[in-house]
Amino acid sequence: MKKILFVLLFCCAFQINFCQNTYTINGEQLELKTEVDGKLDLLWNTFNGEYRYFARTEVGKLIELKNTKGSSNKYQEEYKTVLSDLTNGMSTDKLKLTIYDLKKYIDNYNSSVDSSYISVQKESKIKFRLGFSGGVTNNPFIGNPENKITPLIGAELEVFEETNLPRHSGFLQARHAFENDEFQFSTTEFSLGYRYRFINKSAFSIYGQVKVATLNFTNAKVIGSNNSELEISETAFDLPLIFGVGSDIKVGENSFITLIYGELFAAFLDNQGNFPTDISVGYKFNL
Question: What is the CB neighbour count within 10 angstroms for residue 278?
Fold first, then answer.
């Protein structure tokens, strides 16, 4: 019974560009990062996987921005009242308790009350990550009666929006599965896909992925009716929705070790009877 390498690809390149200090708040010692520094500051960090946000006034008073549930199990949105008071009534109607929204809100306030304040908001930027990998596959969607394993190599370009920890990304991937003496089938595949990081930490991420469109160039040798060897070459474009999982593990400022279980199942391709074995290990880096 084959061991299956369960997968993990990627934790977005995350640089701590903000000052981080220890504060004592209501008897708690908390290390906080300064996201916005102005007339009103925004500080935050994660504790046991939970995000906590704080506003700091000009006199240095830290106030936690909370959104607790009341007795009716409805969120109280206390943070809206706190920020409205601190910003002289600036509207909080559409304000969400996220780093992005809080940063934008407090940044806009600082800009409105201090002409010398330098905005920290940046236009959205697209980032790229290049990766290379090698592994093995049993070509799970191709007839492979003896369940032969063949070598696999690949390269990809991943595209994502520049944020602290992006959850969504797209990728363009090229991979080649080699033939061997016992299974004379090889294919070169180009694919377009999407990833969602359901575990997204600064040191690693685990995601699900789907290959939406594929273009395959295949070569196979088969035995004909007269025991003659025939070589078949085909080109096929599909929209197969091939699902997989993976992880990126950060090993440097801008580099990652990547583990991928690339072809677990497909919505529009039939498994040919063998349990999928499609595992790669690789390296990727930010461009």
Answer: 24
- The Cα 140–Cα 155 span in angstroms is 20
Cα-atom radius of gyration of the chain, to the nearest Å? Answer: 25
Whose structure tokens read 């078949």? 232
CA distance 77 to 84: 12
Sign of CA dihedral 98, 101, 102, 103: positive
Instruction: Confirm if 197 and 14 have CB atoms less than 8 A apart.
Output: no
Asked: is 126-286 a CATH 1.10.10.60 domain? The reply is no
pLDDT in tens, 237-257: 999 999 999 999 999 888 999
221-254 exposure pattern, b = at least 16 Cβ within 10 A, e = fewer: eeeeeeeeeeeeeeeeebebbbbbbbbbbbeeee
pTM of the model: 0.59
Burial of 48: CB neighbours in 10 Å, binned 0-12, 13-18, 19+ = exposed
Q: Give the pLDDT confidence of 196-225 residue by residue, as tens digits.
A: 999 998 899 999 999 999 999 999 987 766
Give the CB-side neighbour count of residue 277, counting CA atoms within 13 A: 18
Residue with tokens 């061997």: 180
Residue boundaries of the structural domains of the chain: 38-113, 126-286
- What letter represents residue 70's amino acid? G
